[in-house]
């Protein structure tokens, strides 16, 4: 991999990781509800899950989607349905010690890692990384490098969203304000699906 291609990929990984999407909306909400420390497993799970997804796409799963495009679109619809379910859960959540609403808890490491497999944006990121930035020469080694770099870039950029959420905790100390914030985060999570689903419709 040339230095120019490496720099271009790092920019791609940074932009796709730091911009709003399902993961970042959920991290912002988790930081506000549970704080930075309790959200760390969620963040690390995202990084590992995305790294494994990139590896899987690079080592053969991407070819399956090229041969059966309907399967890829079906996966994105399933992911979108699950995200709507998560948005509902966020909107209904109360504070961790709240008696109003449902007692909440942050995503675990394994839940966050598994979520990447139904996260439409994560699939777009993984497929884009492999098809655009991975040279064919020494392909397997390049796939390993791309996956590792994605995880390294992804984790610190996500921490920005978690930290932003945790800084809002004092402002969200009233149950009514926290409930309004969670509803807002749920709506933003739903809104983050629009570009992805519009892309699916354009492909049909």
Automatic annotation (TrEMBL):
Signal peptide: none annotated. The keyword Metal-binding does not apply. Pfam families: LysE. One of its GO terms (biological process) is cysteine export across plasma membrane. GO terms for cellular component: plasma membrane. The chain crosses the membrane at residues 44-62, 74-91, 139-165, 177-197. It is a multi-pass membrane protein. It is found in: Cell membrane. GO terms for molecular function: amino acid transmembrane transporter activity. Keywords: Cell membrane, Membrane, Transmembrane, Transmembrane helix. This is Lysine transporter LysE.
């Amino acid at each position: 991999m040339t230095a120019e291609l490496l720099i271009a990929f790092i920019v791609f990984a940074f932009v796709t990781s730091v911009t709003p999407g399902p993961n970042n909306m959920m991290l912002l909400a988790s930081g506000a509800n549970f704080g930075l420390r309790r959200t760390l497993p969620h963040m690390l799970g995202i990084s590992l899950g995305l790294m494994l997804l990139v590896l899987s796409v690079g080592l053969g799963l991407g070819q399956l989607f090229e041969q059966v495009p309907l399967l890829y679109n079906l996966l994105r619809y399933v992911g979108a349905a699950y995200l709507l379910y998560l948005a509902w859960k966020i909107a209904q959540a109360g504070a961790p010690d709240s008696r109003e609403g449902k007692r909440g808890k942050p995503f675990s490491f394994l839940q966050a890692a598994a979520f990447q497999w139904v996260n439409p944006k994560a699939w777009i990121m993984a497929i884009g990384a492999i098809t655009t930035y991975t040279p064919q020469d020494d392909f397997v080694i390049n796939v390993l490098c791309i996956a590792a770099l994605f995880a390294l870039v992804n984790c610190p950029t996500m921490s920005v969203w978690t930290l932003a959420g945790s800084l809002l905790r004092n402002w969200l100390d009233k149950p009514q304000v926290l409930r309004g914030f969670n509803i807002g985060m749920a709506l933003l999570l739903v809104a983050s699906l629009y570009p992805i689903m519009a892309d699916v419709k354009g492909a049909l």
